[in-house]
Amino acid sequence: MTNANADELEGKTLNVYAFAVKEGKPVGPRDVMRGANLSSPSTAYRHLQKLEALGLMRKDAYGEYVVTEKASISGHLWIGRNLVPRLMFYSFFFLGILGVEVAIIAIQFFVQGRTTDLAIFYLIPITATAMALFMAEGIILLRKNKPENTSKNQVDKEDT
Predict the structure, then answer these.
(1) Contacts (Cβ under 8 Å, ≥6 apart) of 75
(2) pTM passes above 0.90
């Protein structure tokens, strides 16, 4: 996928694409409307046509859309069928470092019976802050790119 196409894949179109990949089966405009929390089937259809023009989806014989390839989305990684912000992995990296720092302090204090260097106590808040910032930004991106799920009752009401 070229960079020009990657730039076009954002907002609601990205939500539609992520929903279609997560479904793992052919989807129609009504499925997309419900799953991506769009206002109407025509809006869903417009986003599906845009994805088809980008070469990421194709229309099958039954008029439903099938994902042809998983595009690489800037700042995100595919984990199975889920699109996860890369910042979440950075926060887990810093969480691991924080765990090692705390383990070093615990080993030195409880096993060796001595206090640790003051320098490691300065590292812990820095590492914890980095972990918290990456986690917060990752969660914000995750919520931004994930459509709000409608409750089952709302979907049932629409069907009747």
Answers:
(1) 85, 86, 87, 141
(2) no
